[in-house]
Every structure is written in C-alpha cells, then in structure tokens.
UniProtKB/TrEMBL annotation:
Coiled coil location: none
PANTHER family documented for this protein: O-ANTIGEN TRANSPORTER-RELATED, PST FAMILY PREDICTED COLANIC ACID TRANSPORTER
Record's protein name: Membrane protein involved in the export of O-antigen and teichoic acid
Keyword Membrane listed: yes
Biological classification of the source: Bacteria, Bacillati, Actinomycetota, Actinomycetes, Micromonosporales
Membrane topology value: Multi-pass membrane protein
Compartments it resides in: Cell membrane
Keywords, ordered alphabetically: Cell membrane, Membrane, Transmembrane, Transmembrane helix
InterPro entries in UniProt: Poly_Biosynth_Transport
Gene Ontology, cellular component aspect: plasma membrane
Length: 436
C-alpha cells in the first residue's frame, strides 16, 4: 500500500517537501530565538528587515528561477545543456540586484531612520540578503529544470539547517544585536548554494545561445505578479512600522502572528510541485474536464488546509505567539481571525493564479494582483486603529485577488482550453523555495 501511494506522488515532491519543511521550521526557530533575545524595538527592526527581504527577494528573483527552470526543462527534453540559460538568468538576476542595491544605497539613511531606528548596519544586511537570494534562486532554477529535486531539496534543507544552528548559537551566546540575526539571512543561503553547486557546474555545458526574447517574454508580467503577491502577504509589518513608528511592539507581534497563520502555505509549497505541470498539461492537450477536476481538487485541499489552520490560530494563536516568540500581548483572537481569513483567501489566489498561468494568461494574473494591491492600499488608508487596518487590508486584498482571478477564469472556461504553446514550453517545474 505504501509503495503504491509513493508511486502516485509526483517526482520530487518528497525531496522538495522535506527541504521546505526544514526551511519552514528554521523560520520559526529564527524568530523564536530572536524574540526571546532582542528588545521589542530591536525585534521590530528585525521584523521589518525580514518582511522587506522576502517581499523584494521572492518577488523579483522567484520569477527568474521559474523562467530558468522552464527553459532548462525544455532544452533538457531536447538533449541540450543548460549553460546558456543559466548565463542569461544570472545576467538578469544581476541587473535586477544592481537596481535594488542602487535604490537601497541611495535611500540608505532615510531607510535606516524610518525602518531600523537609525541603524544603518541593518541596511547593509538588507543588501547582503538580497544578493544571497539572487544567487540562490538562479541556481535553483537549473536544479529544478533538470529535475534534480534531491539536490534542490538539499539546498533548501541546508539553508534551513544552517539558520537553525546559527540562531541557536547566537541565542546561547547571549547576542542581543538584531544585525547578527539578520546576517543569518545572508550566510545560510550562500553556504547552501556553494554546497549544492557541483551538479550545476557539471551540467552547464555549451550549446546554442538562448534568445533574450525567449527568457524575457513572460518574465516582466511574472515579476509583477510575484512582487505584488509578496506585497499583499508581507507589507502589513512594514506598514505598521511606517504608520505607527512609536509602537515598537506591534510590528514584531504581527510578524510572529503571520508566521503562525501562514503554516498552510508551507504545505501548499510542496503541493505546488505538481499543480502547475498538471494544469498546464490538461490545458495544452485540451482536456477541459481534467483541468476543471484538478482545479476543484486543489481548491478543496487548500480550503481544508486554510480552515484547519484558521480554527487552530483563532483558538490558541494569542497564547502561541507569547509562548514561542515572547511577543507582546497586543493581539487577540479577533486579530487572528482576520489574519486566518486572509490566508485562506491568499491560498485560493495562489491556486487560481496557477490556473491562469497554465492557460498562458500572465496578463490576467498580473491584473488580479494589481487590483488586489489597490484594494489593500485603499483599506490601509481608512481611519481606524493601525493594526486593524493592516489586518483588514491583508484580508480584503487577498479576497479581491482571488475574486478577480475567479472571474477571469470563469470567462475563459466558456471556451475549451487550447494549446497556447508547445507542451515542453508550457510545463515548467513549479517547485518553489519562496515559502519560508
């Protein structure tokens, strides 16, 4: 029975899921140790750094991984090496990183003053963490495209394992500077890349170059969608810091709460490895019934995950953030209810977004996230207590994204999905190291 179940699991799901699981555990350990070691003000600075790193890092470098993976997979099916794709991908990542570094450097002091209580060292850590993510996502694209999922999962696992070891050492040593807890986000990913680089180097090879248009065709819209999706899920902590700079307890408490209520997103990360390829295959072959069936099942699974997580979060969330993260007692059961509802809507949006991508509707996905962020901004500006505003903004923004995607898909369902491109081009490995 067990062997039969294992055959039903898509290749790479276990390896990637294990790596994601360890990386997810590392996030909890990282924030828990920091929460017990830092003052409220310093933990607030670390929380803002964490939110910016993952908003920008995942938002702009995850699309590079996905496009590199897609092109490497297509070339691999034709017996071509991935070297030219990696070269183009690294160049794109380097250019994007350079733009981010210039922007952060130009605003170094204002950023330090507004977000990090004047500590410019935190801005330096921010730059280093973004550089580490650029390198990690570029190499993961090659590992994913070549279906080297054990190596992919190993890179995630090393990253997570090193974070746990490093923050444990910081806690045992009594370190009380947020800078060192931020440095963990720089060192761990870089070491994980170095230790999993051999298969990438062995596979590089030569071959015909990749046209820029091939790589950049969907990258722009994909980047818009990816960046805006991270804004929806992460900007609340940053907004609390900007709207209520004197409330040093709120930002840290909110990040701790978000880490708890987003546990279902870690599970979705492993399911995602098979979702997009399955949807893309049925769409490309015109299997409308199969497409609808897979989409309904995926929505059913994430709904069950979201509701289970919501019940647990509402019941014990306030107690857990105080116990695990030493968070200030500023969030109640109602706060967790809003955050859990937002996470459920966000899960729906993630599934529906994969369906739009499978149908080659990058513009539709980008439009939905744009409308959602506009709704988030509108709610953030209403006159109400700051914490409630950002919670409502996360909920409304996620719900608007999901509703917009549903409308776009419903309109598209009136015609049978038809092949928009070749199967090799459409079915990209959908693993993601972006959940943390």
């Amino acid at each position: 029975m067990i062997s039969r179940l294992l055959r039903l699991i898509p290749p790479g799901t276990i390896a990637v899921g294990a790596g994601l699981g360890l990386l997810g555990l590392a996030s909890y350990v990282h924030l828990a140790v920091a929460g017990h070691s830092l003052t409220e003000a310093d933990y607030s600075s670390l929380s803002v750094l964490w939110s910016i790193v993952f908003t920008l890092g995942i938002g702009v470098f995850m699309p590079v991984e996905q496009e590199v993976a897609r092109l490497v997979a297509a070339r691999h099916s034709q017996g071509l090496p991935p070297g030219p794709v990696l070269a183009r991908g690294v160049t794109v990542a380097a250019v994007v990183l350079a733009v981010l570094v210039l922007a952060v450097t130009a605003g170094r002091q204002p950023l330090a003053d507004r977000l990090f209580a004047g500590d410019s060292a935190m801005v330096t850590v921010l730059v280093g963490a973004l550089a580490a993510m650029a390198v990690a996502y570029a190499t993961r694209g090659v590992l994913s495209g070549l279906q080297l999922f054990p190596w992919y999962g190993t890179q995630l696992g090393i990253d997570g394992g090193l974070r746990i070891i490093m923050v444990a050492l910081l806690g045992l040593a009594g370190v009380t500077s947020p800078v060192w807890y931020g440095v963990v986000l720089v060192a761990a990913p870089l070491v994980s890349v170095v230790l999993t680089l051999p298969p990438v180097l062995r596979a590089i090879g030569g071959g015909p170059p990749v046209a820029w248009a091939t790589l950049l065709r969907g990258l722009g819209l994909l980047t818009v969608s990816s960046l805006l999706s991270q804004v929806v899920v992460n900007v609340g902590v940053i907004n609390v810091k900007l709207l209520a700079p004197s409330d040093v307890a709120a930002a840290g408490a909110l990040l701790s709460a978000l880490v708890l209520v987003r546990i279902p997103l870690f599970v979705f990360g492993s399911l995602q490895a098979s979702l997009l390829p399955g949807l893309a295959t049925t769409a490309t072959t015109g299997d409308r019934a199969g497409f609808h069936s897979l989409l309904r099942r995926a929505l059913g699974i994430v709904t069950a995950l979201g509701l289970t997580g919501a019940i647990a979060a509402v019941l014990v969330g306030p107690w857990l953030v105080r116990t695990l993260f030493d968070a200030p007692d500023v969030l109640g059961h109602g706060d967790f209810a809003w955050l859990a509802a937002a996470t459920l809507a966000y899960l729906w949006a993630m599934v529906l977004g994969q369906a739009l991508l499978a149908l080659d509707r990058h513009r539709g996905q980008a439009l939905a996230w744009t409308v959602g962020v506009a709704a988030l901004i509108a709610v953030t500006l209403i006159p109400a207590p700051v914490t409630l505003r950002v919670e409502l903004a996360y909920t409304v923004g996620s719900a608007v994204v999901a509703a917009t995607m549903a409308v776009l898909l419903f309109a598209g369902f009136r015609r049978t999905p038809t092949p928009a491109r070749s199967l090799d081009d459409a079915v990209a490995p959908a693993v993601s190291g972006g959940i943390r």
